[in-house]
Amino acid sequence: MAPVPKAIATTLLMAAAVLVVLDQTIATVALPHMQAALGATPDTISWVLTSYIMATAVATPLTGWMSGRFGRTRLFGICVLGFTISSALCGLAVTLPMMVASRLAQGFFGAFLMPMSQSIIYDLNPPSQQVRAITIWGLGAMAGPMIGPVLGGYLTEMFNWRWVFFINVVRRYTRGYTSLDQRFVKA
Questions:
Q1: How crowded is residue 7: how many other Cβ atoms within 10 Å of its Cβ?
Q2: How far apart are CA 72 and CA 30, in angstroms?
Q3: Any idea what the Cα angle at residue 76 is, between residues 131 and 146, rounded to 5°?
Q4: Is 0.85 topped by the overall pTM?
Q5: What are the structural domain ranges in the chain?
Q6: Burial environment of residue 29 by CB neighbours within 10 A (0 to 12, 13 to 18, 19 or more)
Q7: Which phi and psi (to 5°) does residue 170 adopt?
Q8: CA atoms within 13 A of residue 81's CA, in its CB half-sphere
Q9: What phi-psi label fits residue 2: left (phi over 0), alpha (psi between -120 and 50 degrees) or beta?
Q10: Local mean pLDDT, 10-residue blocks, the chain (187 residues)
Q11: How far apart are CA 166 and CA 87, in angstroms?
Q12: Are 18 and 140 in contact (CB under 8 A)?
């Protein structure tokens, strides 16, 4: 496997963080469309958002233990794959319980991506470049919640609500994220 330059690795890690925070807000605009398609009530459709946030909040504290058990880059690759699969399942959901279960899985896998991406960026860069790399990562993480509603509205109006989840299913990103094993990163 060819080495991944640090700049590309940092960009891919930032993109993972963007997807996680983007998914907290992207579905908000599509909720009325989902409500009709899934036969949900105004009270129950909110579980599409709540389940994701709840799973993220519960799973994030496990990151240190999980990374010690499986290794940072292996856990990161597993979580990118899990996040991508659960995103596809969200887009394919035909009932509210199916959607909520998929969003729980998406939030669970996404919970590890934020802290893991920071840790891997920190490991990849020498001390003199760590501040710059984490700043770039932070800019992406800050942009995600702002882009989410706009992108969600666009995708819902131009295509349909399912595309707010299918946007995460990009094969190139999955291949890139899972190839970030540190021994393959070019100095």
A1: 11
A2: 34
A3: 60
A4: yes
A5: 7-33+45-181
A6: buried
A7: -120, 115
A8: 9
A9: beta
A10: 73 86 91 96 96 96 95 90 94 98 98 93 90 90 91 94 88 51 47
A11: 6
A12: yes
Tokens found for residue 119 = 């840790």
pLDDT for 53: 95
Closest CA to 137 of 151, 152, 120: 120
Amino acid at residue number 35: Q
Fold classified for 7-33+45-181: Growth Hormone; Chain: A; (1.20.1250)
Query: Could you give the CA distance from residue 130 to residue 169 in angstroms, rounded to a whole number?
Result: 29
Distance CA 115, CA 124 (A): 14
| Structure-token pair, residue 168 | 């995460």
CA distance 153 to 161: 9
H/E segment holding residue 183 = none
